[in-house]
Amino acid sequence: xxxxxxxxxxxxxxxxxxVDCGSGADPALSVSLPLxxxxxxxxxxxxxxxxRELVLEVSIAPDGQSAPESGLPExxxxxxxxxxxxxxxxxxxxxxxxxHHRYRxxxxxxxxxxxxxxxxxxxxxxxxxxxxxYAETFHKRCxxxxxxxxxxxxxxxxxxxxxxxxxxxAEQKSPPQFLFHLxxxxxxxxxxxxxxxLRQQSYPNWRLAVTIGVDVPPALVAELERISADDERITLxxxxxxxGDLLEEExxxxxxxxxxxxxxxxxxxxxIARAVGAQPDALLVYTDSDSLNRAGEREAPLFKPGWxxxxxxxxxxxxxxxxxxxxxxxxxxxxxLDSWSESGYRLLLEAxxxxxxxxxxxxxxxxYHQKPLLETALAACQGAEREALAGYLxxxxxxxQLEDGQLFPGxxxxxxxxxxxxxxxxxxxxxxxxxxxxxxxxxCVGSILSLTDYxxxxxxxxxxxxxxxxxxxxxxxxxxxxxxxxxxxxxPFNYSAINNFGARHARGELLGLINNDIEVISPGWLREMVSxxxxxxxxCVGAKLYYDNDTVQHGGxxxxxxxxxxxxxxxxxxxxxxxxxxxxxxxxxxxxTGACLVLRKSVFEEVGGLNERDLPVAYxxxxxxxxxREAGYRNLWTPYxxxxxxxxxxxxxxxxxxxxxxxxxxxxxxxxxxxxxxxxDPAYNPNLTLVHEDFSLK
Length: 698
Fold this sequence. Notes:
18 helices; alpha/beta; 698 residues
């Protein structure tokens, strides 16, 4: 077993173990181990013959805030220990059952049986097949360094084969079913590559309007006139043309702006047409994108989530790679086409109130290649987007305050919306289950009472058979505070039942599920969570939780990770922006952890509370969130409510056969109840891994 822990200045680090059995380091024996900042990472290694030398190499990717030369890692643990063969096999099978999509939920003997069958078909030993599959669970393609490999190994395999597009077009009506109308502004710096990328589309049913600015050089105008004469789908318009010119009845189903320096992938409109065909009522369509560097190479992919209305209030995560169905734009007919690119965020915000999940089609393919904006253009874009959001909030969400958020590399405007608290502030009942654990309970309740600046809350300590004298004395003492009540639950541990019991006794209009190993560190945590939970469209609200070493314990829940659900950006450092800046912005997520969760009591009761029968210990919070989502509410996570979480200290780890069987039954129930939803999280992206919790690529 290789064990290693280090602290480092960077966003990601990987340990590589180079193995020399006497004739130099053998690449086939090299072992890689993704590191978790400040935590011990482990991996089973197998050496087929005696080892002469081992070399450890640590590779660190800078996080945008620290320079690549910012120093060597500080190693806190390094160990290589011999394992008994049966123990090593058990660890390998357990990891495959937990993390590999082929073996999720299988018993150890079922994993071995599956490996033997695979090995027989490949002419290798099951032992070798098991090590190969085990290695796959450690492989990571980070969105930066691993993108070229992903393009070659994943994207290339999914591109249309010869004749596929032609067959699709032949199946459609003549002309093809959907007509796309695009606009391209011709300015002095126009990159004709954008125009050429459109003319090279494998899907032919499109129209393009090019507006000619007054400062466009005559030579460029002449070239555009030549291209227009050669291709009847291209029309040249004066620079004062309006959006209404593109919205004529015969002019197309979807309309989009094509920024002057961006390129479409060859099959972009083909994939978009197929997506709309599968979702014919869609009003908005958008795709994933990446960037083109100065050498024309693709980098920095943006694998976006599905429709996410609250993330859209933080920044324009959709970007320019989107198409609007005509009716969405009827109110903007007078908009000058030459200002459409700057108005894209405004159009998305105005459409936001009219769109539900079923109205938006997200095509999870990189179909749009952007050139990074110059610093002056980026600043202008940030100002325009902030102005657009401010105007939208004043009209649609009066009383909401707008603040600048923390920028992350390559972002446009990043903003924070502060929603108002109703007057008077509603009572919040904080439910804190506990059994002994006085050192954590005292810190939890004490920090809530002393640091929380929200004016109207009660703490319900739900005592589950505590026997420690110090704990009992503390419960008696803390109950003298008028904000605290102690309720006794004299039954075996059942997290769902305990919280349902507390909810029945709660006086508050809102409920807060709080683990007894939570510690308040930001006074405004509850005010922030209540401000969202009081919004009628919002269901469960989650917080940003840290381990003691200031790495992220919970950045929201992503469905499907590890087979059922995992925590977003787990073990990332506190100050990291996260993938697409998502550790720093409010957003909708399918689920959040019940360790710190706030929702209206009426919503909790509407969905039947927590599932006491099938989910007494694990996944009950995820199940609650999915029931709330199913009832029509949006769940939400906010980074502006920050707390420590000393994870699962009160109930302990699943380290016995009985506990593991119970955990397996609960995971099986989740699979049976929620099925495919666990593998198609709209807050995630199908190109991202379900093995790790760090948004690395598949």
